[in-house]
Amino acid sequence: MISSNAQTSIEGILLKAARSRLPQQPDDACEIVPLAHAYDSARPEANVIILTISSILFRLLLVFHFDDDASTREYFSKKTGDVPLQDMLLEICNLCCGAVNQDLLPYFQDLGMSTPYVLSARCLPYLEGLKPDYLSSYAITINGSVKLAATVCVCAHAPIDFVADMTAVEETSGELELF
Amino acid sequence: MIEQYLLAALAGVVATAILALLLHKLHGARTLARLQSEMNDRIKTLMETNAQQSGLIDQGEQKIQQLESSIAQLDDDLARQLKIAGEDRAALAAAVEDKENLLDQARRIAGEASRLKSLAATFERWHEQMISLMTQNQDMHAKNHELSSIVKHVVIVSLNASIEAARAGNAGRGFAVVAGEVRALAARSEELSRSYRDSLHRNDLTTTATFQDIQAGGKMITASLGSVEVLADQFQVRLH
Amino acid sequence: MSKILVVDDSSTVRDEVAGFLRKNGLDVETAVDGKDGLLKMKSSPGIKLVVSDVNMPNMDGLTMAEKIRGELVNTTVNIIMLTTESSPAMKERGKAAGVKGWIVKPFKGDAVLEAFRKLAS
Prior knowledge:
Chain B contains three helices and no strands.
């Protein structure tokens, strides 16, 4: 139900969003490698952050896995303020999902995005229970030491086919548009 | 002599008179001729003029006939135009009424869109209930975890009981059997608890995915309704 | 008396935006969702600029903006949305609700500081 063009496009959009929103400094290295399985049984106690983008034609779930280790904490904690790490991670995943949302907008007019939610990593094997038409996972490494993973899971209600224009110009985020 | 003079003079006079008469007649004839010729000319001119005038009169009459037929045509046209104008007036009246109806409908569409936007409040309500459901799930996780640790503890207790039974030798044989059964029950409970934990995780995912779909879907609908409302408002302004 | 109200359900964002504005000498108050934002608007009449997220529980940012203009009968305070949403439909709804400007996250303080100063004066 999801054409291979659409799958490639969704993957492209996700990787672009991950590269632009996950690294905290613009010059940080960000390596992305496909993963065979979403669930990493070596890290069963980890938590994941899940968001949903809904359209009339499909629903798309984005799941982000973060290690609760020193390098992750150090990389993502802001030096100033005592914001809990989980809040920071929730906002970062929100921004990343927002970027995916923006890049999908030209092809699917009405899109809605949920707020993020934290679940146990043990929930991941049950993604298959949603009967997805497209399920793909990626291992992301920032600056060689911060290890994350992202999974995209799309359930289509109707055939989906589109080709994303990956040559699109960098977004004008952060600028004030006055009405 | 005087008689001769008188005769000569008379002859002269008569001659002069005859000459004068002849001249006069000649002159008169010439004049007459001239007059006649002039008169002929005049008659000719008059006749030409008359002919021209007749021609003009003919043309005039023709023109009059043309004008009369034009007038008849114009009368027809006017009648037709009046009929069309009458139809146009009726059509305009109908269009104005249609516009009033459209305006009314546009107002109603805008009103409906505005009312449906309050659906957003419904989605907020579901969001609160989702949080409550997920909290209950957390509670079930906690209880299951506690059960699991109790079961683990029972396993340890039953192992200790088996050891004590073995130490008691024959007297402890009955106790050893009971300890064995307790351990078997504990193992089954542990298995059940693990299976229950897995069910809870599957439940968590399905619940979260469903409610996020509702939350996101609600925003999608609210956004679409927003566009509809804006369009309906613009439409109303245009009709006014 | 506070001049700017920052509304977002994420403490990260509240910290980042309010912190940046305070560092640049501006008076800032915060709220955690639309309902809280309305309460703060009622209790602090000196607020000249509201910077708000759209997607929040309990009351989203656009509904809050509509209520500020409607129930609170406040047509003078400037409202800017700071959100991941960028769809034209959303922006239209914002415009209709009396929102003055739109910023797509992430927040880049330097790019908007001057504009915020002007809108809050």
